[in-house]
Design a protein that fits this description.
Chain lengths: ~110, ~110, ~110
C-alpha cells in the first residue's frame, strides 16, 4: 500500500478528479495554496496498491499540464519588495509535484 | 512515532475531535472534499507513539460510522453523464479510511 | 528525498512562507484547524533533499514561536462542558509540530 500526495494546479483538478474516479482510485482533495507563486493549487491524497502506482502516476502526468504564466513581482510578493526586479516576468508553472509514501498500516472502517 | 492520516465524514468529525482531545491525542484537521461521492469529508493528521496506534485506530473506528445515503447521479457528477444510470441509488458511505505512516524524525518547537 | 509536514500557528505562517521562498524550498500550505485549542493553524508540506532537512528544521524553528494565550474553556469547547474548570486559563501554544517522512518516489511533471 502507498499513499500518494500530489500537488497540482487548480485548473487541472476537476479533470484529474474525474479521471481518478473513472479509474476507480480513491482520492481526497485538500484545499491548499502556495508554492513559489502562491497561486491556487490543490493537493490530492490517494491510497493505492503498490502495483497500481505506475498507472496512477501516468494518470496524473496526463492530466496535469505545465503552463506559462505572466506574474507581476509586486502583486505576488508581500510589502517587502526591496531588491526584486519589478517588471512582470513569464514563468512556467505546474504541472504536478508528486510524493509516493510507504504505508505501514491501512484500515478501512 | 507514527503519523496517522484519517479521512472521515464531516458528520463524524466533531465527535472524533472531542474524543481525540479527551484521550490526549494531538490532531490537526484539514479541510478536504471528495472521494467517490465528492461529499464533505474531513482529514485528520495525528502524531502518536507506536504503542498508542492501536488505541487510536479503535477510537477512530468507534466514532466513524458507515451510513447509507441516496445519491442522484446527475447532481453528483459533472455534465458528462453519458452512459451512467440516471435514477438515484443508495450507497454506503463512510466510515473512515486510515493510513499509518512511519515517521523518520519528529520535532516539537 | 523527504516530505516534511509542519503544523504551525497562523500568526507565523506568512513569515515562514516568505523564508521558505527565500531559501528556495518548495512548500504547499494546507488550510487546517485544531489541536487542543482548536485555534487557527496552518499545515505546510515541503519536499526536500535529505541533506537539507536540518536547514529546513532550523528555518521552521526560527520562525515559529511559542506564545502564551488566555483561553476561556466555555468558548473553546462545545456545549459539553460538564466537569471542566470554567475560568480562563493561560496556556502555551505553538510553535511548530514537525514530522519528517521518507519518500519512496518523487516525481515532478
Ligand atoms: Ni481523462
Ligand atoms: Ni467518544
Ligand atoms: Ni526570515
Amino acid at each position: 500500500m502507498k499513499l500518494i500526495v500530489a500537488v497540482i494546479q487548480d485548473k487541472d483538478s476537476n479533470l484529474l478528479q474525474q479521471a481518478l474516479v473513472d479509474a476507480d482510485f480513491h482520492a481526497t482533495k485538500l484545499a491548499s495554496t502556495g508554492g513559489f507563486l502562491r497561486s491556487g493549487n490543490t493537493t490530492f491524497i490517494i491510497g493505492t496498491e503498490d502495483h497500481q502506482v505506475d498507472d496512477l502516476l501516468e494518470l496524473i502526468r496526463l492530466h496535469c499540464h505545465s503552463r506559462n504564466q505572466v506574474i507581476s513581482p509586486i502583486s505576488s510578493l508581500d510589502a517587502n519588495t526591496d531588491g526584486y526586479i519589478m517588471h512582470p516576468v513569464e514563468v512556467e508553472v505546474g504541472g504536478a509535484t508528486v510524493f509516493v509514501l510507504d504505508v505501514d498500516q491501512f484500515k478501512h472502517f
